[in-house]
Write a sequence for this structure.
């Protein structure tokens, strides 16, 4: 089964290509990147430092999707939204790992999923999604008397902050507590003596750091009087997420049109995306 990798020249895109190389179900059918990338027109094998594959890197998304049965997208926000529209037009199943989508993007993705099966997740790992389930339970059992602070650390090249995973965790906690995420979220606490104010009860705080070559680390603190519960997920190899994306694609194959998450693929827990 031929798979198109959209955003295939990026760090995650190349990790996914390496994973597809090992898959008994899928083969690399097309690789897409932005029009100005130096790999345009070159063989994918050259980029991966492998034998030539007979697949050249292109910027033509529609042609790439037309030549394949499905696709995985780890590209930029703008590119992903364009890719989603084309995939919906063509009825191609699509796994999306792009982070930083806003509420308008997420709503459009939901509407497009009426025409094809889409799986979107800010985190493609097993343990990262187990942590999501644990946080939902913890947020229900530990009410707003327990302050929530979410911390994420990533490599220096990551553009979005907070990370998509951090936001995913924050949305899950807000939903579990029955509050509106946009009202509860607080991004950063820099303030002067003229603007200083105490932490508001029920806030979900975020802090981000970008340094070195850290793949990804997330910690969520639920701090009450006299005790703190901390849950942490640490990724030590980017290939972890590539494996998850290929697994997600294998699960998505044959699903009815709709918007799914890794919860559905890993645990069979259907429901509205978080």
């Amino acid at each position: 089964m031929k798979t198109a990798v959209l955003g295939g020249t990026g760090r995650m895109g190349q990790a996914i290509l390496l994973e597809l190389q090992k898959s008994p179900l899928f083969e690399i059918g097309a690789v897409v990147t932005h029009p100005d990338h130096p790999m345009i027109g070159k063989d994918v094998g050259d980029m991966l430092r492998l034998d030539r594959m007979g697949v050249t890197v292109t910027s033509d998304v529609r042609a790439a999707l037309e030549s394949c049965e499905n696709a995985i997208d780890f590209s930029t926000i703008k590119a992903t939204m364009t890719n989603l529209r084309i995939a919906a037009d063509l009825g191609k199943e699509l796994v999306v790992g792009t982070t930083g989508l806003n509420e308008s993007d997420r709503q459009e993705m939901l509407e497009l999923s009426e025409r094809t099966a889409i799986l979107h997740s800010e985190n493609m790992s097993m343990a990262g999604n187990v942590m999501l389930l644990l946080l939902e339970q913890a947020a229900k059992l530990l009410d707003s008397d327990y302050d929530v602070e979410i911390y994420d650390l990533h490599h220096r090249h990551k553009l979005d902050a907070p990370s998509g995973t951090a936001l995913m965790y924050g949305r899950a906690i807000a939903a579990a507590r029955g509050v509106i995420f946009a009202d509860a979220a607080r991004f950063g606490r820099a303030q002067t003596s003229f603007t200083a104010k105490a932490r508001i009860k029920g806030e979900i705080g975020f802090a981000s750091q970008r340094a070195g070559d850290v793949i990804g680390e997330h910690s969520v603190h639920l701090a009450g009087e006299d005790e703190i519960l901390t849950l942490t997920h640490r990724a030590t190899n980017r290939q972890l997420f590539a494996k998850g994306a290929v697994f997600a694609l294998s699960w998505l194959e044959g699903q009815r049109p709709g918007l799914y998450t890794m919860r559905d693929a890993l645990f069979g827990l259907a429901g509205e995306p978080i």
